[in-house]
Amino acid sequence: GAVVSQHPSWVICKSGTSVKIECRSLDFQATTMFWYRQFPKQSLMLMATSNEGSKATYEQGVEKDKFLINHASLTLSTLTVTSAHPEDSSFYICSATASIAGHTDTQYFGPGTRLTVL
Amino acid sequence: AQSVSQHNHHVILSEAASLELGCNYSYGGTVNLFWYVQYPGQHLQLLLKYFSGDPLVKGIKGFEAEFIKSKFSFNLRKPSVQWSDTAEYFCAVHGRSQGNLIFGKGTKLSVKP
């Protein structure tokens, strides 16, 4: 149980284009979804937190107009990297907490999406 | 500010050796503590967690961790590692009053067969 998927697993795009990454909770309803970014040999850095039906809360230093987050349902959140540039190349990971007693404080992680911007 | 430090960047052990990975955090309030594991080519998986109660927590695959409040530590242990334990291990802390999950930089464990 508590499986989170991401799509695509790897995407290569040209500079200036936009890329959408999907995060789905497959077997549970997610009260909250999180988006992280991981640089090589570094830890995960939280980008934003989103609750279904409301605006995402972005961490300091994360441009909300560049990293658009939509959390349209209890099982789907999307991250759109707008006008991507090579410095946006990274590994993006989502996680979700379940609206199940005993699991609301535990994040379950997706497999990540590797974005390469040429 | 809340932070998590993992003392070892890379640990190399032989099979059957005992393992202890250090994790210390800084946070003034009550915390939830987690260890996640990332096997090669796979995503982060929850190994164990501590919210309250017995400070010695048992997780999957024979791992355990002990929360020592006075030392702000949550070290991960396993008495006898296997080659299949080769992975990267992340300690994470969630300050209950502020909601973010903060990760350590990870410890890569390599187990030699």
How is the topology of this model organized?
The complex is a heterodimer of chains A (118) and B (113).
Chain A: E1 4-7, E2 10-13, E3 19-25, E4 30-38, E5 44-51, E6 57-58, E7 67-73, E8 76-81, E9 90-98, E10 107-109, E11 113-117
Chain B: E1 3-6, E2 10-14, E3 19-21, E4 23-26, E5 31-38, E6 45-50, E7 56-58, E8 64-68, E9 73-78, E10 87-95, E11 101-103, E12 107-112
Parallel strand pairs in B: 2-12
Antiparallel strand pairs in B: 1-4, 3-9, 5-6, 5-10, 7-8, 8-9, 10-11, 10-12
Question: What's a concise summary of this model?
Answer:
Chain A contains no helices and eleven strands.
Looking at this protein, list some descriptive labels:
heterodimer; A: 118 residues; mainly beta; seven-stranded mixed sheet; four-stranded antiparallel sheet; 0% helix; globular; B: 113 residues; 12 strands; 55% strand
Would you write up a description of this structure?
The complex is a heterodimer of chains A (118) and B (113). With 118 residues, chain A is mainly β. In chain A, 0% of the residues lie in helices and 54% in strands. Chain A is built from no helices and eleven strands. Chain A is globular, with a radius of gyration of 14 Å. The termini of chain A are far apart. Helices cover 0% and strands 55% of the residues of chain B. Chain B has strands at 3-6, 10-14, 19-21, 23-26, 31-38, 45-50, 56-58, 64-68, 73-78, 87-95, 101-103, 107-112. In chain B, strands 2, 5, 6, 10, 11 and 12 form a six-stranded mixed beta sheet that branches. In chain B, strands 3-9-8-7 form a four-stranded antiparallel beta sheet, with no helix packed on it. In chain B, strands 1-4 form a two-stranded antiparallel sheet. In chain B, a hairpin with a 5-residue loop joins strand 10 and strand 11 (101-103). The model of chain B has no long low-confidence stretch (mean pLDDT 92). Chain A binds chain B through residues 34, 42-44, 46, 49, 59, 93, 95, 105-112, and chain B through 32, 34, 36, 42-46, 49, 51, 90, 94, 99-106.
